[in-house]
Design a protein that fits this description.
- This protein is mainly α.
- The protein has one domain: ADP-ribosylglycohydrolase fold (Orthogonal Bundle), CATH 1.10.4080.10.
- Helix content is 65%, strand content 0%.
- The protein contains 17 helices and no strands.
- Helix 1 packs parallel to helix 14, helix 8 packs across helix 9 and helix 11 packs parallel to helix 13.
- The two termini are 16 Å apart.
């Protein structure tokens, strides 16, 4: 384990927050409205008053995507690398109550329903949680920082555990596995070309492990997304085609493949990725969080523009280095356990 590993883990955490914060003002607006209102987003902006999902946030503030990712990260630290769904749920509940999330338009439908049930006393293992929205994938990047990819079966099981407080459906688990796997491989220093080649097969393995829906194939949709992003048609045309053909909605089957496409389209540059995702339309903050976390993990903390990093630090008063240091050590423990 070396400084490169910690740099990539720190890059993943900052990438998550960067993509989320940059995409926040335009979240859940159609692409046409994003263009009409903003023209082109290329800096941190406050959530517009007329955006009923973003109106609660000032410029540079991240949304529930990163708040829930940090709830997961804190649970991992508290449990010394173990994935304990009840602790994850408790942390999410603490954030939700503090932010008054149950009374604001910030919770996704699956997460909100699950958290209400948990609050009413239903045990997590009794919840069906078969929703197909992207709440599991949007928060999973810390798990990718923690878990090596030594065993795909174990990896999927750990993603399922981390997702289970809110999501247990095959497509939600497949999407979360894809994001976590991409982050984990990036932390190991694997090239994006190699990672992106693996993702369709990884998605298929996760989606077919326990089939619970009649969803389209995550692996096939990722292949489609990558093929669109690789067409030589220009950035604007590619973004429009991703929006039209792959989709940029809150369902996992759209937003995760869209995020993979945006990593490709941005050439893995986290700063460019955050901006492109913010201008995509649809679930911009979540697609941005997932895609830019991967870009940050690929290229490390030094790839995050210093001015953007400084603004994130000032606005959110968070020290992500506590996560990068601790997760670097926890990951090494996991790797040694697999090697033993």
């Amino acid at each position: 384990m070396n400084n490169n590993t910690e740099s990539r883990i720190l890059g993943a955490f900052y990438g998550q927050a960067l993509g989320d914060s940059m995409g926040m003002p335009s979240e859940l607006w159609p692409r046409t409205r994003v263009k009409a209102h903003f023209g082109w987003i290329d800096r941190f902006l406050p959530g517009p008053a007329e955006n009923n999902a973003a109106c609660y946030f000032d410029a540079c503030h991240f949304t529930d995507d990163t708040s829930m990712a940090l709830a997961l990260a804190d649970a991992i630290l508290e449990c010394e690398g173990a994935i304990v769904p009840e602790i994850i749920a408790r942390n999410v509940m603490t954030w939700a109550d503090g932010f008054d999330a149950f009374n604001k338009n910030v919770f996704g439908p699956s997460s909100k329903a699950a958290m209400k049930a948990i609050k009413a006393g239903t045990p997590i293992d009794e919840l069906e949680n078969n929703g197909v929205t992207n709440g599991a994938a949007m928060r999973v990047s810390p798990l990718g920082c923690l878990m090596p990819t030594c065993s795909l079966d174990d990896f999927i099981d750990q993603v399922w555990l981390a997702s289970s407080p809110t999501h247990k459906s095959d497509v939600a688990i497949a999407g979360a596995t894809v994001i976590a796997w991409a982050v984990s491989k990036a932390v190991d220093g694997v090239s994006w070309q190699t990672i992106s080649d693996q993702l369709p097969a990884i998605a298929n393995a996760a989606q077919t492990k326990n089939i619970t829906t009649f969803s389209a194939s995550m692996g096939a949709r990722i292949e489609l997304a990558l093929s669109v992003a690789r067409e030589n048609i220009g950035v604007e045309s590619a973004m429009q085609k991703i929006y039209d053909l792959v989709g940029a909605g809150t369902s996992t089957i759209e937003s995760v493949p869209a995020a993979i496409a945006m990593v490709e389209l941005a050439g893995t540059d986290p700063n460019r990725c955050a901006i492109l995702c913010a201008n995509l339309g649809g679930d911009t903050d979540t697609i941005g969080a997932m895609a830019t976390a991967i870009c940050g993990a690929i290229n490390g903390i030094d790839s995050i523009a210093p001015d953007l990093k400084a603004q994130l630090d000032a606005a959110n008063q968070l020290d992500f280095t506590k996560y990068s240091i601790a997760f670097t050590e926890l990951r090494l423990v996991k790797e040694r356990a697999y090697a033993a």
